[in-house]
Amino acid sequence: MVLKAAPEVQAMLLELQALDTKLNQLSHRATTLPVLATITALHAERDALRSAVAQQNGAWEDAQLELKRTEADVAVVEARVTRDKERLQGSASVKDVAALEQELAALAKRQSDLEDIELAVMETVEELAATLAASRAALQALDGRIEEASAARDAALADLDIDRQQATGSRAEMATKIPDDLLALYEKQRARYGVGASLLRGGVSSASGVALNSSDMITVRAAAPDDVLLCPDSSAILVRTHESGL
């Protein structure tokens, strides 16, 4: 049995379809906001920078340990120099004096080498500290950019949510004006094929963008105005108006 509905009632389906299309577009926009890609890129950049900061901090800590070891070695040599100088002053043995002077000369060479190493390590520590500080500053700035982008995302989503609520309310109101059997068919076809209603304009179905062939047009022309027809291409309810070219 062919479903019946007055032409003006069938035309309401086009308004319902327009609202459903708008809701779909709003959902798509919510998931494809340009700022979402920006936030994803910023998070990836932050992850990479955090990894770099961790590595730089480890290198800086290792350099500090090396500096402490070198400083300890220098302190040991300085203590031995002090001890040997005290022994030298108190020694009356020529043999002992000669041995102490030889050891002091070796210690002086050792102390000079260690101080050169200490200076180089200190420079390394300073360089690593500067690099680490710059990276931490960059990370802080990046966090700020992420906060700004997140705020922009939230604002955009809030605007879309307002539009969605308005469209949802309008859709609910429009649905109450459509007979249950016609609405059920619309929902069924929309769930299956993505579009529930299609305007026939100039012999072309708006849902498919395809012109009906001559055989289909004969069928459409032969149907009563209140017959509910389906588009042969999109399977949506085919709504006929004065624009249909019948």
Please describe the topology of this protein.
Elements: H1 7-31, H2 34-90, H3 94-175, H4 180-193, E1 197-201, E2 204-205, E3 210-211, H5 214-222, E4 229-230, E5 237-240
Helix pairs in contact: 1-3, 2-3
Describe the structure.
With 246 residues, this protein is of the alpha+beta class. The chain folds into two domains: 7-27 and 179-240, no CATH class; 33-175, Helix Hairpins. Helix content is 76%, strand content 6%. The chain contains five helices and five strands. The protein has helices at 7-31, 34-90, 94-175, 180-193, 214-222; strands at residues 197-201, 204-205, 210-211, 229-230, 237-240. The chain has a five-stranded mixed β-sheet. Helix 1 (7-31) runs antiparallel to helix 3 and helix 2 (34-90) runs antiparallel to helix 3. The model has no long low-confidence stretch (mean pLDDT 93).
Order of helices and strands: HHHHEEEHEE
Helical/strand content category: alpha+beta
Query: In angstroms, what separates the terminal alpha carbons?
Result: 24 Å
Radius of gyration: 42 Å
Indicate the CATH architecture of the largest domain: Orthogonal Bundle
Strand content: 5-15%
What characterizes the major β-sheet?
5 strands, mixed
